[in-house]
Design goal:
- It comes from Acetobacter vaccinii.
- GO terms for molecular function: DNA binding; DNA-binding transcription factor activity.
- About 1% of the residues have low confidence.
- The chain has 474 residues and is an alpha+beta fold.
- Strand 6 and strand 7 form a beta hairpin.
- It is globular.
Length: 474
């Protein structure tokens, strides 16, 4: 099904780009070969951004089309809603429309405010528990923000992985022996299995003294394949990753180290699932994850993660968000190519189908959910935990959820049998109870923050308190 084209109003983003490049309106209009008045209308959102100008800007300034859409704005508004729910802001509430204006007109100031609040919240928590000073942001938060700024797509690295696959040209799609042969021929490294490696907390290690790559013998084939791709990326494309980090990566040492690990994993995923071949097969199978994992010989999680990265300019796949959680609700990975954003503070909403997945291990759970901004998503959730190796083994219980907007969901096999026009069974999903304003939810675990509560005796709701409207909050 062809994707419906919508008008793109990107005035603030265009103005931000022009100011970043120190260009006047006249200079940019001349570069784009349009009139000054036409450019002014686009910057003021009086006219939409035409497709040919979008392509020209992306090529001229090495940007993805996603840079100009409103996904960052939507995520910023969601983060603002959660942040402003803190009681510290009870005397200075902001309406949703003002938050949206703030995120649209001053994105850098909005991000600075959110970073400052995150540092404050972390410092407050640390001081209460340990009485120690806290850093502004944890390294993993810095890397997560950096990855999200790129919409989880790194063009040069993705293309390098795809080119390597095509040069390797594995016979009959047998990638594992092709990678092993390449490592032996080009680097003199043989593959060996070490039964004691897992006891030392390792899954692979390169022993340059004996010229061997030591692998854990208990790993599934798709994991071993991923490890070999990681090693090739480290050996042959380390300079490319380093240049990406020098040019646009985080600046703090620990964040740089984590970002380097992320890029290594990104290269490995892009090598196992080369962009053009993978996107073509995904569209042919209507994004059937089980069909894709069997076709490419990889895991359910590897396919799901790769689907969240398919944002190559001019050849975009469905924009998915991807989250990986443990059974306690801790978010282990979070990437989004659409407007969806996870809760920044507190746990995820228990109504999410990712938690139902733990009750049906190995089975796919499909759900239509509606977020606080009224967007409806098609969510696909499944556990991806491995089985225990011994009676004493305690494998981590993990589940993932992959989601896309309902309009894109029509292009997937997971929409089969669903009435996408009937929204009566759509599940309302909140950003965590602290920022969720739905009073009629029996799953609420604590009141919404920053609002006055009604606990009167004349009525009792599904929870023993109701948040009063904002005008009564003071």
């Amino acid at each position: 099904m062809a994707r419906t084209k919508t008008k793109l109003f990107a005035g603030p983003r265009l103005r931000q780009l022009r100011q970043r490049e120190s260009l006047t309106q006249a200079a940019l209009a001349d570069m784009l070969e349009i009139s000054l008045s036409y450019l002014n209308q686009i910057e003021r959102d009086h006219r939409p951004m035409p497709h040919h100008l979008l392509q020209t800007l992306c090529e001229r300034f090495s940007l993805s089309p996603a840079w100009f859409n409103d996904t960052r704005e939507a995520r910023a508004v969601q983060a603002m809603r959660e942040t402003m729910a803190d009681p510290i802001f009870k005397d200075s509430p902001l309406s949703l429309s003002k938050m949206a204006d703030f995120a649209r007109s001053s994105p850098e100031l909005c991000e600075a405010f959110l970073t400052l609040y995150s540092a404050y919240a972390f410092d407050r928590e640390r001081m209460e528990s340990e009485k120690n000073p806290a850093p502004q942001l944890e390294p993993y938060e810095t890397v997560g923000n950096w990855v999200q700024e790129h919409d989880n797509y790194f063009h040069t690295l993705d293309c390098a992985a795809e080119q390597f696959y095509e040069t390797l040209n594995p016979q009959d799609g047998a990638l594992a022996p092709a990678l092993a042969t390449h490592l032996q021929d080009q680097h003199g490294l043989a593959i060996a299995f070490d039964p004691d490696m897992e006891a030392r907390g390792l899954v692979w290690r390169v022993d340059y003294r004996t010229r061997r790559i030591l692998l854990s013998h208990n790993q599934p084939p798709e994991s071993t394949l991923f490890y070999l791709a990681q090693i090739i990326g480290q050996l042959e494309h380390g300079q490319l990753m380093a240049s990406i980090l020098r040019r646009e990566g985080p600046k703090e040492n620990n964040a740089i180290a984590l970002a380097r690990v992320y890029l290594g994993n990104y290269f490995a995923g892009a090598l196992l699932l080369p962009y053009t071949r993978f996107l073509k097969t995904a569209e042919q199978t209507r994004y059937d994850i089980d069909c894709l994992r069997r076709h490419f010989g990889v895991s359910f999680e590897q396919v799901s993660h790769r689907l969240s990265t398919m944002q190559r300019p001019g050849s975009e796949g469905i924009p998915f968000y991807f989250l990986k959680l443990d059974i306690a609700g801790n978010i282990l990975k979070s990437f989004s190519a659409n407007r969806f954003s996870q809760a920044r503070f507190g746990g995820p909403c228990p109504l999410w189908n990712v938690f139902r997945a733990f009750a049906t291990p190995g089975q796919i759970q499909v759900q239509l959910s509606q977020t606080m901004d009224d967007a409806i998503y098609l969510n696909i959730a499944r556990t991806v935990s491995r089985d225990g190796l011994t009676y004493a083994d305690r494998p981590r219980q993990i589940a993932i959820v992959l989601g896309c907007r309902i309009a894109d969901g029509r292009r997937t096999v997971y929409a089969a049998g669903l009435n996408l026009e009937d929204h009566h069974l759509v599940v309302p999903i909140g950003p965590g109870c602290r920022a969720c304003e739905r009073d009629n939810c029996s799953h609420r675990s604590l009141p919404v923050s920053g609002r006055a509560l009604d606990t009167g005796n004349d009525a009792r709701g599904v929870v023993p308190y109701r948040a009063l409207p904002e005008k009564h909050a003071k």
